[in-house]
Amino acid sequence: MQKEPIVPAGGAPPAGPYSPGIRAGNLLFVSGQGPFDADGKLIGDTFQIQARATFANIERIITAAGGNLSGILRIGAYLHTLDDFAEFNDIMRDVLPTPHPARTTIPVPLPGFLIEIDAVVLLPDPA
């Protein structure tokens, strides 16, 4: 099976030697995304703004691979503090369609931002 890197136009540049997404067949593996714009600058100073920006970055990668948010099977959510857990749940309910994906949420001392999310996505069959 071949691996295809997915690098969306207008996406934040990788901060290291990795692809924003890797497509393998109908699966897309989205690397950890944070609240950064296309120039790599931090977006927002509140958890709500940063979480929504992070989901927008994930959606950009999924769209570039030919999918959409409804294909997300699993996410890993890394929160600077679990004090934001309830707000994260509210944002997930608002941003992601049901059925909601499987999820792991872990507190991590992130370097200067409040949230990072990775994802595994089922893409539609190619036409």
Automatic annotation (TrEMBL):
It holds the Pfam family Ribonuc_L-PSP. Transmembrane segments: none annotated. InterPro entries: RutC-like_sf, YjgF/YER057c/UK114. PANTHER family: 2-IMINOBUTANOATE/2-IMINOPROPANOATE DEAMINASE RIDA (PTHR11803), 2-IMINOBUTANOATE_2-IMINOPROPANOATE DEAMINASE (PTHR11803:SF39). This is RidA family protein. It comes from Dactylosporangium maewongense.
